[in-house]
């Protein structure tokens, strides 16, 4: 079966939740013997790869402009998929889904994965939000099959579009943890094992990292944070803007450690040795970063938005979204206790099982 994927910036080692999803999922599907091609945005990759872990890679030039790059890339990717004689086109995210009807007109069978209502993200203006909502509608109404990554999204599209058939709930996954130490990297960052709070995500407004920095600063000012404890923010932004510049400046003024975008041993060592992981977001689909932290058995403190609540953590792990004081109190509770590991039930987030479920969706379209 020839499968072509679009809607992602690219793989491997490209920052973003959809990108991490695709990086884990499609090599596994290729290992089943499927012919998998993933179309990348050339401005995000410079590795010269044409294949990675069995997935063929095709790079298409796209203007690196926040409001236009996804739709331009998707249009070009759909045309490329047609030339490649794709049996299945798999479109990720609601922005690219705007062109699902176009792909159907070209005669392709389309799977659309809804990763979350991106129009809720703070970074988008009124016009962009309208286009994203239209993309969601086009994907949900015209895709042959729809995959949703959470019950929240499944209920959303049933309520808004009456789409209840050919809808598949397939969660995001998480790979097996790579427990490790990296003393040289910790020395470079100026942190100690077990003496830092970790957050990892893109530096965009809806992640509410500014609330986390505010909470950390208030803990220090109120004597609720021991002097040798640090806050580590692992991540960066695709488009440097007023928010990301302000966040970085705010972080530096308050002694926060900024690592930039990292993967591999550096990230694994930070996950292995943090005292807790924090995700204060106002918007998520089903957060892979949270699942990854849980796989390392670290305590977590997360906002009480629907996507995070669906993970089913104990009540004490949540705080009211946007409440900086409550966040500081939750974090102070965690850091004041001895380090501990938490056994979470990660069974439904197994990438191998998830890959099989997605492949079954493809086969159901072709049979």
Give your account of this protein's structure:
This protein is an alpha/beta fold and about 375 residues long. It has 13 helices and 14 strands. The chain has helices at about 15-30, 70-85, 100-105, 125-140, 150-160, 185-190, 210-220, 240-255, 265-275, 290-295, 305-310, 325-335, 350-365, and strands at about 1-5, 35-40, 50, 55-60, 90, 110-115, 145-150, 165-170, 195-200, 230-235, 255-260, 275-280, 300-305, 320. The strands form two sheets. Strands 3-4-2-1-5-6-7-8 form an eight-stranded mixed beta sheet, sandwiched between helices. It has a six-stranded parallel beta sheet with strand order 11-10-9-12-13-14, sandwiched between helices. Helix 7 links the parallel strand 9 (about 195-200) and strand 10. Helix 1 crosses helix 13 and helix 7 crosses helix 12 (about 325-335).
Keywords:
6-stranded parallel β-sheet; 14 strands; alpha/beta; single chain; 17% strand; 367 residues
Between the first and last Cα atoms, what is the distance in angstroms? 11 Å
Largest sheet: 8 strands, mixed
State the helical fraction. Answer: 40-55%
Radius of gyration: 21 Å
Alpha-beta content class: alpha/beta
How many strand elements?
A: 14
Count every helix, treating DSSP H or I runs of 4 or more residues as helices: 13
Q: Kindly report the average pLDDT value.
A: 93
Beta content comes to 15-25%
Order of helices and strands: EHEEEHEHEHEHEHEHEHEHEHEHEHH
**Numbering strands along the chain, what is their spatial order in the largest sheet?**
3-4-2-1-5-6-7-8
What's the overall geometry?
globular
Q: Runs with pLDDT <50, length 5+? A: none
